[in-house]
Amino acid sequence: MTGVNTVLGPINTSILGFTLMHEHLIVSSAGIPLNYPILFGKDYMNRIVNGLTQAKEGGIDTIIDATTLDLGRNISILAEASRRSGINIVATTGWWLDIPPYFDGVSADQFAELFICDIREGIAGSDIRAGILKDASDISGVKPIEENILRGVARAHLQTGIPIMLHSYSPGQVGRQQIVILKEEGVDLRRVKLDHSNDTTDIEYLMWLLEQGCYLGLDRYPEAL
Questions:
Q1: What is the pTM of this model?
Q2: CATH topology (fold) of 95-225
């Protein structure tokens, strides 16, 4: 049997059901949910639960919460939301684009160690373990510090088997750079998802990604007019 870590404990993948692969219950900066929850409004927890409950009634069984620490991840909120709504929630480790300058001195192996701890031991001193790894690069391509983090994500993946989701800039085909690095690290690209792939209509590029073995994350759609 194959299992996946959720915020309420590991479950078999056979009961994941209909899964949304890229969601954010809260988006802010690191530490905001814990230190300044009032910024989300007095009734934010009930609003989150009500939204999830409606999603559950509409047929959604599981969501991947793609919120890393620098995007304001708070696993206590995720756990409460899961308990109250009945939706499985998978928490993320890794890093997005809000990178502090002192990260320049952190090695890829050190990043890997941090992410592995989130996966094997628990996030922020809890017993809630991450179920997916995330890395990000955007319009400027893969910057040197982002490459270091990506290699850390790759190494954490190789040691844990946890799959990888990549924030990428599809109009600039940044996925090509990210995939080169993952290949150098020995990652099986069938365990990788390129998010925001539908930000481009370049079919040749999208087909190339599929040919590498990756999944395409089609997760941003404009509202219907």
A1: 0.95
A2: TIM Barrel (3.20.20)
